[in-house]
Amino acid sequence: MKRIALLIPSVALLCGLLGTVSADSPPTVKGHDAFLQGLRENKEKGAMSASNARTLSPVVSRFKGWFIDVTEKAKPGKLGNIEAVEGISLASKARDTSGWQFVETEKGYLVRAAGGKYKGWVIARDDSAKTRPEGPNLTVTPALRLSKAPTDNCHWKLILTKQGLVLEALSGKYRGWFWDFGGGDPSHRESGREVAINVLLAEKVVAGSYFAVNPAK
Asked: From the CB of residue 135, how many other CB atoms can be counted at a distance below 10 Å?
């Protein structure tokens, strides 16, 4: 019994050293490779390829059909020495800020703003962001940021599933976590559309982790 008791704090210590625990990647659907091939539309200096602009939209909840975007109320900050803003959002109508390019690199994909005020900035992760419970069985963190330049924590794995595209973090404290959003969060009015500042990372794949991907108009 003493040996078992001694093992318990050791396991807890090991988990702390390894970082935040994450779930396994979901299985890909037939057509995953063709989807990635379809994103290789442009040559990109310093990268393997870049897509044309795409929109990403949730496939569930009252935010179904809204668009990954950036709020006009984005808060300025920094990731290390790199300029960044906090404000990755969902918007009810697509604008030039709703288009994103998938830039293929050896480390994974960058998700880069294709237009608007932050054109050329990439979606990154802030390891200093705190976690919080989202219901009884899920932990999330508002760790997504828009960074003026690539950081150590801005690469993503793209996983095409039957339900939609899943984006998984490939490095940092939240490696193995997935895009999600707060389905019950409020929205507010911005320039003729509704905007919700509710895009998150979740410790496992949930209904809010699936996105429809379409060419930006």
From this structure: 9
Q: pLDDT tens, 125-134?
A: 999 999 999 9
Burial label, 115 (beta-carbon count in 10 A; 0-12, 13-18, 19+)? middle
For the segment(s) 23-215, the CATH number from 3.40.50.11810, 3.40.50.2000, 3.40.50.880, 2.80.10.50 is 2.80.10.50
The residue assigned the tokens 């320039």 is 191
Tokens encoding 56? 């990403």
Best CA proximity match to 153, nearest among 145, 142, 161, 163: 145
Instruction: Tell me how far apart the alpha carbons of residues 142 and 148 are, in angstroms, rounded to a whole number.
Output: 18
Tokens of 24: 């396994």
39-92 confidence digits (pLDDT tens): 999 999 999 999 999 999 999 999 999 999 999 999 999 999 999 999 999 999
Domain positions in the chain are 23-215
Q: Which two tokens stand for residue 37?
A: 């091939």
Q: Round the CA-based radius of gyration of the chain to a whole number and report it.
A: 18
φ/ψ of 175, rounded to 5, equals -55, 135
Asked if 67 and 91 count as a contact pair (C-beta separation under 8 A), the reply is yes
Q: Report the candidate in 198, 200, 197 with the shortest Cα–Cα distance to residue 71.
A: 197
**Predicted structure pTM score:** 0.90
Backbone angles phi, psi at 69, to 5 degrees: -155, -170
Backbone angles phi, psi at 38, to 5 degrees: -70, -15
Rounded-to-5 percentages of helix, strand, coil across the chain? 15, 40, 45
